[in-house]
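Retro notes - structure team

What went well: the batch runner handled both jobs without manual restarts.
What didn't: labels got mixed up in the shared folder, which is why I'm recording both outputs here explicitly, each with its sequence directly above its tokens.

Job 1
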Amino acid sequence: MKKKISKFLTTACLFLLGIMFSALQARTMSDYASPTQERQSITCIVSDEFGAVTGANVKVKGTTIGNITDTEGKVVLHNVAPDATLVISYVGYITLEIPVNNQKTISVILREDTQALSEVVVVGYGTQKKINLTGAIEQVGKEVFDNRSVTNVAQALEGAVSNLNISLEDGKPDRSASFNVRGTTSIGQGGSALVLIDGVEGDPALLNPNDIANVSVLKDAASAAIYGARGSFGVVLITTKSPEKGKTSINYTGNFSMRSPTVTPDNVTDGVTWAEHFRESFYNFNRVLPTKINAQQEYSDEWLEKFRQRKAQGIKEEVVIEDNGTYTYYGNTDWYDLLYKDQSFAQDHNVTIQGGNEKGDFYISGRYYGFDGLYNYNPDTYDSYNLRAKGSLQVFDWLKVNNNMEFSNSDYHQPYVSSYSINIQRYIEVTGFPTIPVSNPDGSHTYSSAYSIGAFKDGNNYQDTNKKLFKNTAGFSTNFFNNRFRINGDLTLRYGTSLRDRKRVPVTYSTAVGSVSSINTTRNDATEINSNTFYTATNLYAEFEDTFNEAHYFKGMAGYNYETQKFRDLHVERNGLLLEDAESINLALGESIITAANAKNWRIAGMFFRFNYGYKDRYLLEFNGRYDGSSKFPTNEQ
């Protein structure tokens, strides 16, 4: 009987599997043809004006059926429905959709996408059409930046260009980014890409994002070679907007944003729960019971038991004054909730005025960005202003002059903790325990508070940073022989200043009634750090470009580059502040005076060239080269 049952079950299972396989097969076939249509094989031949196209992608629309053409431009597709549509695509050509219409053989002639191939891409010292590019270059336009409320350019560029890795140490508004192209650069030392703004080395953190027209990234050695050793790790070329000719236009955009954390840590804020876990972990590690909680609070099992009882009785009082006047704490403090705002506010305002005609044009833009900070106490506020004035004048048919002026000013307020560090999160981690409240009954700081957010609440430990930048580039461009021969040149002057005012005063706390102590009593000083940088850059280069016999394209470019920079830095520090809220070093009268200074000067000169050849826009050749000299090396090795 058991054998019969087993045989019956086996037969039934095989029968069901057969039905499932048939259904699956029928469903698979339905992907290629309806029940009333017969599947067929078709041959597609793809060519262009020069002959067969190898590697063109031929696909049946709406399915996964597809393949690429062989060296003869042919591809055979199977299981194609008679009413299907073929999609034929190839880089640099217009994509076509061709109905099959029961045809067995389909011949297609691809046409070049002249609009895409004629697009101009910014390269080193000039521009090139996409059709003539040989290097690994990627460009993004103003759509990445327009109408986006971001603090600086680096934040908008993150994720916009493949293989461009942008590293920000943190999210501070004035933080400059490190640009890396294609990952690891050199063993042990690393390296950052060279960033040029309108052909001049600069910091994108000081740039108005809404002034940017496009960003080109030169990714390989061939495209970056024209910048010499400084371009070894790639080059990022940022080009600002040019005036739009026509009627004068005025444009205003404003953004108001509220920001809140997307993810917040789930911290233990119940004092009893935290104390129980602390006791357990301390004992498991040391095999003895604790007597203190990281020197911030006395601990005993009796205290913990009393804490449990108070919690069970619903007693909310967090501070008990003992008979000897000392404070005993039974807190349930959420230090991070006290530190951070639930929401922060930012605003961004842009005004643009532009216009012109064939004889002259102008572009004026202004921006204000304000951020009210993350912290509830002594917030880290940031304000920045940008101004740009750009214009050109066609003096003669063969001569055009232009000028590009830029000014930026930013102010950043950065609060310090009592140890004069900006890393308040670390001090909350090691001193801000839930069992300890922020304040004592008399309003004084607790020991934990003084080490963490106490200095923030007092508002007397901070650094204020002001950065100013003025840059002006004056240039000319000429063209001769029907624009076949061109000479271009520019001179840039840039002056930047950075002023840092820092103040450090002791933070007081109390552990008992009438008892006042201070943290870091040796520090009661003011510091001023003033630095300035003067930079010049000169570029002069000539280009020749022509096409012979409608087949041979030549373009040659050669030029000269010269750059200088002078940096000065002065550091002055003096103790003995008369008032905790003093805002000038003149109110420090102590005997400890520290002065320091620094100076750096360098010069760089280089000659560069590029040669391009193209045969019927199909076979391309490019040479780049540069020879540099630098004062950073010994005299006989520059």
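Job 2
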Amino acid sequence: MSTTQTHPEAGSVPGGGRGANWKAIVASSALPAGIVAVISTVVSRARLWPSERADVARELVAHFKDGLDRGRSADELVRDFGDPRAAGRRIGKAARGKRPWTWQVWRRGSQAVAAGLAVTVVGYGVLAARFAMGEATITRNIASELNAPIREIPEADRAWPAYRAVLIGSPDAPGFIVKQRATQLPVGIYEIRIAAPGQPAPEHWAEAQAWTRSIASELARIRAISRTPRMGYLLTNAKDPGLVAANAGLNARVYPDDVPDNNPVLWTVLLEPLGYMRAFARDLSLDAQVALSEGDSARAVENLATMLRIARQVDGMEFLISDLVAIGIADLAWRTTQAIVETRLDALSDADLAQLAAEFARDQNPGALRPNLASEGAGFEDALQRLFTDDGGGDGRLTPEGFAMVTRMSEGYVEPDTRMSTEVSLEVHALGPVSVALTASRKETRARWEQIMAEVAAIQALPMWEWAEHPSAPTDRFSDEDKARYPVLAVLVPGAGSAIEKSEFAHQRRDAVTVAVALERFRRATGAYPASLDALVPAYLASVPRDLMDGEPLRYRLTESGPLVYSVGMDRVDNDGRQARDADGKPVTHQPWMPVADARARQQAGGFASQLVYDGDMVLYPTPR
């Protein structure tokens, strides 16, 4: 299920590959604002499925970039393009005409039934009456069920109220949000750039120092709060008025009615801590770098430890999206640590290294900081009870409101508020009876959901080197015919596969940093690096981490410039640490998972996209240049 993040900086995951959305594609295109507005209007007016919208966005971005490359101005291109609203309607109509025949038949069949009402009034009347009388029976308050164990947490063990106080502040002491609003931070200030001794300070370093000093008291409070056992955030679909007031001027979205529902729709609950915890993590990372430059290694290490503690608090919020945010925060801590170890290792004391090793060891168990698929079940059950009727035996059919909601969601439309108050139009009443008769029942929908999620969970339960297929495969097999038969699943099945993959690679980075810290501790104790990683066990490592690609211990070589830790990469061939590089000689930073046969076939085919080069290893430490 998806939930809403309300911090202005918290958005959807950008990108251009699996799971990309059209807004992320347009935002990352760097096109002029006028052209972006045209593309946005066209895509919005097209009223297509999310994947089709992404395709239209890519084509329009390519079209306008081509015009700019030919020397034409943005104004000329916009003028010659014509009315974007009319273009959107034409593109939408053409795209819908190319949809699978099953979808076309379903749509045209529904229209034919509506047109033939005069002839089939008796039979259709029975269906229409049955459809119109369908009502959802809300038997569970799932938000309240999820809140019950949170309410049992002692106030002193809940972190969110204390974090909220840091964010809001008081009339006499402005909080984090107000300070952030009043400070114009330069773009790129949060990039991890640590200057080695004798090198010039990174860009925007003066601004970074000034900013972290201005929030020093807030960061100190955040470090203390991070030691609180649980986040303790109670689910609601109403925005926090204190946070709304503090965000005034930041274009914070305010809902028309912020009175919480007693039984809110679970997919509309607001996970307000997520965006703020990400912001805290970025500032802690930045302050760790500043602290190291000032010779305060203890503060730097405590910031890194704080980031990991915050990640664990967020991880305990029991939603897939909060799991992803937790992994992102932890990965930022691991990446910051690696940058520090690579550039300012001399500034870390033995005690600093021991503290980092202890913090990393806390997340070694298989379930720590990984996507929790079970958390999606609650949201799905809440959707079933709101979208379907209930015959008392676990079955039912889509209600008029449910059919209208699913139709609007399948078209990419998002309700303007957090309530499930969809009006049932005459069109829904006309088309719904036959359409619902062709769609899966409540029991069938639940069975297919459980099948898909079980298949994804079975892959996730395996170490990556035992994967036979990508975790996205079960959802990728959900065909266009399936989407017509199971419209609820078409909009509610989570895209967990890519999240699982990203999580595994993030943990591989943590393993590499853990090994790097252990190597330095060994060197300081013995005067030299070990000949093998086995020498680090058990004094500095519980065990040698495994290479996710083949299950063997991570590879290690001692070179003239120092230790080298690497993975064999997606082709599963050990190239003695030779880094995979693209056609321009730049290191390949990520190799999406695929079966070894596919990776080798692409490697041998040649001409593959630069970031997907599979010839060579993936050096994990130090960062390849």
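One thing worth noting from job 2: The radius of gyration is 27 Å.
We'll revisit the folder naming next retro.
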